[in-house]
Structure formats: structure tokens, C-alpha cells
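Entry 14. Structure prediction run on the chain below.
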Amino acid sequence: MRYVLSVLVDNEPGVLSRVAGLFSGRGFNIETLNVAPTLENGVSLMTIATSGDSQIIEQIIKQLRKLVTVIKVVDFHELAAVEREMMLIKVQADDSRRGEVLRIADIFRCKVVDVSLVDLTLEATGDQEKIGAIINLLNRFGIKELARTGTLAIKRSMQRE
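Output returned:
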């Protein structure tokens, strides 16, 4: 099962290593990891996507909460959340195929961020399924390079009923 964890941490040397160590020590892979500063000085937010058994994830969350440098842990597994990923993808797009690549980019609301005579670099954001669909469609043109951020998540706002 897939889990996305949000971990608010003190921005100090060694924090990333300790958090990653909790996962590797239990034989879990971190599928994606994002770390960035928050609005609060000296505090960073880690967004970790992983797959595994719910009991092990529960133990990892308990262990994370015991770390002195961890301020808060949120498991998005059962929460309503918005998840997004960003991708930069460089695709072969000579004159004969450029129009077709641009149509696909338009359908998925991608931005063209770089152009040359033989390729286009596109920026796309969306959930994992959307990013995967874009990659699948552009694969036939020849993908030269690909960079992805991995999952970012935030809890949905409360809705009025």
C-alpha cells in the first residue's frame, strides 16, 4: 500500500540522515522525498512517499515522533489531501513532429520551457497518473531527459456543507 507522510523538522545537519535511517533500518524504500524550508525560520517540511505494510508504517511514524528534531508527522493515507508532482521532460521534436508534441502538451496543460531545433522541454504538474500518462504518450517521440520532483502533498481545506 502507498503512504505519503509529511514530516515537519528542525532544519539542522543530520536530520535527513536520521529520518532516512528509520526507513532503511526497517527495510523500507523511500520512493520519493522532497525537503524544503517552510515559512517559519529554521523549519523544513519533508514529504515522503513509500509503500509497505500498515503496521511497519505505524512503527516508523512512532519512531519519527520520538526524534528530537521532528516537530510533527502527518500520514496522508486516510486524509483528504491534494497531491502533486512536477516534471521537466525533454522530448525529440524536429519540424515534422513538433506540432504533435505541442498538441499533447496543450491537452495536458504543459508549459514549454525550452526550445531548440530538435527538441522541446516541457514542464508538467499533476498527480502520479497524469505524469505517467504524459510520459507514456511522449515516449514514442523519444524522451531525451526526464526530471521529477516526486510527490508533494497538503491536507485539503475543510469544506462547508
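The mean pLDDT is 92.
Filed with the rest of this week's runs.
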